[in-house]
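Contributing: when you submit paired examples, paste them exactly as shown. First protein:
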Amino acid sequence: MKRISRHPSALVAAVGAPVMGVALACLLVGCASTTSSASVGSGGSTTSDGSETATGTSDVSTTYKDGTYRADGTYSSPDGEEEIAVTVTVKNNVITAVSVSSLESNGEGAQYQRQFESGISSVAVGKPLATLSVSNVAGSSLTSRGFTAALATIRSDAAA
């Protein structure tokens, strides 16, 4: 059994940054005002391939008009500027359908966009539009930046 020094830096090294991050987040949530109308959701999970899926981070008090919305999102990759088109169908503030298609990709970007396209539906459908946030889908982490940019436009367009 490993002995841990009582020095604070030894505790951080032993416990690890992820646990300390959770502790800090809990501390911050505990300090939040009880009169705030915004709430932070958490619906994140990890898939069998280790990819992070969706988490909630936005104001859930916003309501959205039912409909289908489309927006483009750009992001930078090692191969240059990439662009994807995102289409989301919303009903009762929940995403009922999502599709992503490549508008512009360079080199490996096309491969990662195809991976993202194949996995985004299982991550996004059934999640509230207000709280959906993705960071890594089917092994594609950069494409999610373009998706997030497009989703911000869609939220704005769909706001009631």
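Second protein:
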Amino acid sequence: MTHALMLRLVTIIALLATPPTFANEEVVGSASFAERGPVLSPEEALEQYELRHIGFDEFVTVSLTFSPLALFGPPRWWTVAYEGKFKKPLKGEAFYRKLGRDDLLAEYQARSTMNLTLKLVGGVATVGGLTYVIAAAASLPDYCPSGPDFASCTRRKSAAEERMRTKFWVGSSVSMIGAGLLMWGVLRDPHPITPSEARELADGHNKRLRQELGLTGGPTPAPRARPNVIQARVTPVLGPHTGGLMVEGTF
């Protein structure tokens, strides 16, 4: 009996000396704290949003020519994406990298490579066609001197002129095709999405950024206002039947 009592006493003392543990103690402790990370103040969160959000600048160019034949060109609009309040430009690949869209980035690179190929092939074909035409015209004899060889010289000159006309049309056709390819490469848009789709993707990025920074409870933070810049240029215009000034404005 004495030995059994001693074992019970030792067991009770051991239980009292052991600190109590709970099933959810580990989750409530270090794990949840690690998931939260540092907490930003509202001012710091707003500052981070202003530095990392995606915005767009709109530009329009209007051309007006003051002359006896007044001409008013249609306005030309274009959009430029930027990052943050300091408006770091997001041109080309930078825009898709900022969004994390590798699929659109690969498509943009493929279209850009295609545009470069069109411009190179078009430029070579244009220069080669013009060179071929000039070389054909230079090989034509100037005149046939009078004498016993005049008739044969005239026939050779007529045959050379016929060959020159053929080379002229061949060279001109190659040059025109090359010019068309060159213009296609210059004017073809390398972006795989439209400006409205780019704005939609940027809006999704900004919403995720607000959630990450904890700015979902209030209205969308507006970028800090920046003064608008208006650029104007006046260029004299001279022609055989007209003259005046051309005014171009960007705002």
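If you have annotations for the second protein, write them as plain sentences, like these:
Residues 21-37 have pLDDT under 50 and may be disordered.
Residues 38 and 213 are 11 Å apart (CA to CA).
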